[in-house]
Each structure stands twice: as structure tokens, then as C-alpha cells.
Amino acid sequence: MDQIRGFRFLGQAETCRVLLLMTLVVAFILGLQYFELTPISTGTLGNGTVPGFIESNNITKSDENEMFLAPQEATSEFRPGNSTTEVLKSYEHKFVNNSPKAYGQSRGNETASPHHPLQPKKHESSTKKPPLVVISITQMNNMLVKRHSGPNNSLAPRWGSNVDRELRDARNKIKNAALVKKDDTLYAPLYHNLSIFKRSYELMEQTLKVYIYSDGDRPIFHQPEAIMEGVYASEGWFMKLMETSHRFLTKDPTKAHLFYLAFSSRILQQKLYVRDSHSRRNLVKYLRDYIDLIVSSYPFWNRTRGSDHFFTACHDWAPAETRGPYMNCIRSLCNADVGIDFVVGKDVSLPETKISAAQNPNGNVGGNRPSKRTILAFFAGNMHGYVRPILLNHWSSSPEPDMKIFNRINHKSYIRFMKQSRFCVCAKGYEVNSPRVVESVLYGCVPVIISDNFVPPFLEVLDWESFAVFVSEKEIPNLRKILISIPLRRYVEMHKRVLKVQKHFMWHDGEPVRDHEPGNPQSHVTNKQQD
Ligand SMILES: *[C@@H]1O[C@H](CO)[C@@H](O)[C@H](O)[C@H]1NC(C)=O
Ligand SMILES: *[C@@H]1O[C@H](CO)[C@@H](O)[C@H](O)[C@H]1NC(C)=O
Ligand SMILES: *[C@@H]1O[C@H](CO)[C@@H](O)[C@H](O)[C@H]1NC(C)=O
Ligand SMILES: *[C@@H]1O[C@H](CO)[C@@H](O)[C@H](O)[C@H]1NC(C)=O
Ligand SMILES: *[C@@H]1O[C@H](CO)[C@@H](O)[C@H](O)[C@H]1NC(C)=O
Ligand SMILES: *[C@@H]1O[C@H](CO)[C@@H](O)[C@H](O)[C@H]1NC(C)=O
Ligand SMILES: *[C@@H]1O[C@H](CO)[C@@H](O)[C@H](O)[C@H]1NC(C)=O
């Protein structure tokens, strides 16, 4: 009996870890240092600069990706005959219970260890075709609740540590959080549960400690300066803020709740991918060798089989590169696709922020007030993936003047449309994620996410359905009908919420700043409405 209770607590401790990381990520972008800025005229993408164009995916998500066939990837567990609900029932992340021995044996086997019921068949890139199973945002929220309230969803640590008790305590305090109905700086409707968010945030500030392994060679490891701009910049910004954090870092790994593997998936790709090789094998090997080093040099990985280890990775390939032993880690990914192997409740969706100039990471925040937003829906972008051509087929030559659905347009017009539209369509490209989600939020445009199985950023904390519209890919023909059916009153409230959520999507230099701290003119954002 006692043993069972013990297991239960450990399970809860794991959940707490996830929650703490989540809010840790939120911490870095919570609050805003607002600068008056000139409009962006160029976008720096990957290694190139694309003057006047917004299409962020052009270079970095290049054809080498589209062509990709990595035979070593993806286990085949998908059963097409099963309905979504059936598959959902069987959806359950299993930690790789790599006893040291099993871990050794799994070396060299390139298939992902946990069998994921939604994973596509071997050799099949999930991005070329619509997914066979679609998980709605409501279902994702349910998965989250289930996982966080479930009694046992983690591996028991092999041996105890003081941090286990601290995590258990934190978990209990979060569960018993004092009821907060209203808050001066946090707008309650945005969050799943304001009381829980506030309490976990406080506890994070008071107790969370992160250890960063100093191992790993530059520039792939520990060199955030190399990745502060472009569409993958989020991983660089997180790394920089984490590595310079006074509050959260500890030099004593026995005091750490989380262990950070500080690599850049983008630099990994730039340095090791052999052009036209269509193989990620050496990238995967590089990361595996790193884990081998960590496993053999420190006891911490073995204690929890890596489940208190995390990394952030924004490159499209990161999910595929971090299977195998990494599947136990908290994987914070921009390419957060629940239809591949993203585990809701364990993994964390990292916002993809396209940063044109590192001195001004948030760009030219602002946009029209609702009455001055005369365009119903806006989209512009290259024809990457299968969704965008469908979108353009239906809407680019629509007689309805309030539908502005384009192929690629110039950057200036793109920003203007974002600021003048009610709804901004964030359609899947090659992968589920798109920098448009963050752009829409920062320009005050209600995001319309057309990307089946995309897990939106900070799902753990934010109630996405309260400020964004989710349209399934097969509903593209009904897009206008869906949008005009949203009553004006509801739209105005959604717009307000988008403005209120902006602060969670901004990066700023230095230590995390709480938005109610003095000197942080948060209100400028909302006042900055253009007429
Ligand atoms: C969860 O359950 C499994 C099997 O029922 C058990 O082996 C494992 O130790 C449990 N883990 C925790 C953390 O309770
Ligand atoms: C960008 O990268 C490509 C291929 O990696 C290379 O051929 C090209 O010279 C680079 N361009 C610049 C401006 O560095
Ligand atoms: C975008 O990509 C296409 C195809 O890869 C290339 O031909 C074109 O030059 C790129 N555009 C820019 C602005 O780099
Ligand atoms: C559907 O899933 C269940 C449970 O995982 C499995 O037993 C069954 O064989 C599947 N059905 C088909 C048609 O694949
Ligand atoms: C962790 O387990 C692996 C596999 O048994 C072993 O090779 C390694 O030495 C262990 N690490 C430490 C630090 O003991
Ligand atoms: C790799 O793992 C798969 C699935 O567990 C197994 O069928 C296969 O035999 C393994 N291959 C090697 C080389 O161990
Ligand atoms: C939020 O969480 C607190 C603490 O667990 C709980 O008392 C409260 O009922 C929850 N509120 C909502 C709206 O779920």
C-alpha cells in the first residue's frame, strides 16, 4: 500500500517537472521591454537575406527537406482502420524503460523506441499528405488533463534524491493553490486555470534549478549567438537566456530539478548535413554520441532515464533527430506534431518566432483596432506542403473582397495586411508549425490555425480556443462561412485576448522580467493601436 502511494507521488513529481519547465519557458518571454522601432524591411533567413519578402520558410525549409526520406526513421504502429477515438484510447506515451542494458542494446537500432500509435508508416513523410488521424485542440486539452491528473505517468527514479521531495512538495502546493479569480496583470480567460498558473510560476521562481552540462562542442552546443536571428531563433534565445540566468541555474547538479542539453538543431543541420544526401544519419549519430557521453560521465541520466532532461529545438528535423534515447526527455520543439511523436503533457511546443534583427526580437508590434480591421481573412506565403495550394485554390480568386489569400507578397504589404485583418490564416507549410502564429499575435490579428495535429505553444498554460480559431484542413472550403459566423462581439473579445496574450510571445534581453515589475511599460502595447 505504502509502495503504491510512493509510486503515485513520483508520478505526480514528474507532472510537476513538466509544468515547471512550461512555466520556465513562459518566464523568459513573460513581460516586455518595449522599444520604438522602425519597420522591418528585410528578413534574415538562414544564411541569406531576403529583402522585401516575408516568406520565412523559403531558404531554411528548403527542398532538401521536402525530398527527405530517412529510412531509419519512424516505427510503424499506425493502424489506418482505427477511428480517431480508438487511436486516442491507445495513445499513451511509454517511456523508454532503458535499463542500462537495454539502453546498450538499443544502440545502433535507428528506430524510435516508443511505439506511437499515430506514427506514419515507414518511409512516409507525414508532411506530404494529410494525416490519417486528426486530433482536435479539444482532444489535446483532454490529453493534457488526463496526463496531469493521472496517477502514474512516469518512471520511478532508480534511486531517491532531495529534489524528488521538492518536486512532490511543489506539486502539492500547485494542486492546493489558493483560488485566484482575477489578477491585475494576468487576464484570467487566457489561461486554463489562473490559480494554478500563478502558483506554479511563483514556485518556479522560488525553487526551480536547472543544471547545464558543460560538455558539448561549439558551435553546435553552447553558442546561442550563432542562432539569434531567422525562423529558428527561438532555440538560440532560449539557450542564451538560460545560460546567462542567475535565478534558475545551479552549478550543483545534485540540486537540479532539470538538466538542459544546450544544443542548436539548426547549427547541427548547418554543420553536419551533407547537401543532397537525403540522410540525417550523421546528425542523429552526433546527438546519440552526446547522450552516450552524458550517460557514462554522470549518474543523473541513469537515475531518471533522462526524464528530467530537456532541450529546445526549432529546426524542422529536430523531432526525427531526437528519437531513441531522447524520447524520455522533455522535448521542446517548434515542429510540435501530435500526429508524429510529440507527446502532449511531456513535450513542450516552443513558439517559432521569426526574428529579423536580434536587437529588436519582437519586431514592430501593433495593429489596428477592431473597427479599423476591414479585411476578414489574410494569408500570404509560398506554396509549401499540401495545405496551402488547397487554400489558394479555394480562396485566392474568391469574389469576396474581404478574403485576401495570396501566394507570396512583399514584406511591407504582409505586415500591413496583418495589421488590417481580423483573422490571419496560419496554414501548415512543410511542417505543422509556422512563424505566422506568433506574427498574428504580435500584430493583433486573431490566428486561424489550419494545420491538423499542430500543438500550439504553451498549450499547458494557455486556453488557445479562447483567442484563436482552429479550422481543420478539410474545412478549408468553409473558411469564410466559419469566420463570418463568429459574432462581432465574440471577435472583439478574441482580439482583446490576443493583445493580452502578446506578452507571452515576446523575447527580451537579460533576466526574465515579470510584467508587473516597474519600468515595464506593458500598457504601451495595447495603446499602440494604429488608427
Ligand atoms: C507506474 O506503473 C508501472 C507498472 O504499473 C510501474 O512499474 C512503475 O514503477 C510505476 N511508476 C511510478 C512512478 O509509479
Ligand atoms: C548559404 O548556404 C549555401 C549552402 O549551404 C551556400 O552555397 C551559400 O554560399 C551560402 N550563402 C551565404 C551568403 O553564405
Ligand atoms: C526561394 O526558394 C526558391 C526555390 O528554392 C528559390 O528559387 C528562390 O530564389 C528563393 N527565393 C529567395 C528570395 O531566396
Ligand atoms: C484498432 O486499435 C485496437 C487497439 O489498439 C487494436 O486492437 C485493433 O486491432 C485496431 N484495429 C484495426 C482495424 O487496426
Ligand atoms: C549508466 O548506465 C550505463 C549503462 O549501464 C553505464 O554504462 C554507465 O556507466 C552508467 N553511468 C554511470 C555514471 O554510472
Ligand atoms: C530494431 O528495433 C526493431 C523494433 O523494436 C526490431 O524489430 C529490429 O529487429 C531492431 N533492429 C536491430 C538491428 O536491432
Ligand atoms: C483551478 O485550480 C484550483 C486549484 O487546484 C482549483 O481549486 C480550481 O477549482 C480550478 N479552477 C478551475 C476553473 O478549474
UniProtKB/TrEMBL annotation:
GO cellular component: Golgi membrane
Molecular functions (GO terms): glycosyltransferase activity
Principal subcellular localisation of the protein: Golgi
Topology relative to the membrane: Single-pass type II membrane protein
Keywords: Glycosyltransferase, Golgi apparatus, Membrane, Signal-anchor, Transferase, Transmembrane, Transmembrane helix
Annotated stretches, region: Disordered: 99-129, 510-531
Regions of compositional bias (Polar residues) in chain numbering: 99-112, 520-531
Cell compartment(s), UniProt: Golgi apparatus membrane
Entry annotated with the keyword Electron transport: no
InterPro entries named among the record's database cross-references: Exostosin, Exostosin_GT47
Highest taxon of the lineage: Eukaryota
Domain Exostosin GT47: from-to ranges: 205-484
Record has Glycosyltransferase as a keyword: yes
Transmembrane segments: 18-35
Family designation: Belongs to the glycosyltransferase 47 family.
Protein name: Exostosin GT47 domain-containing protein
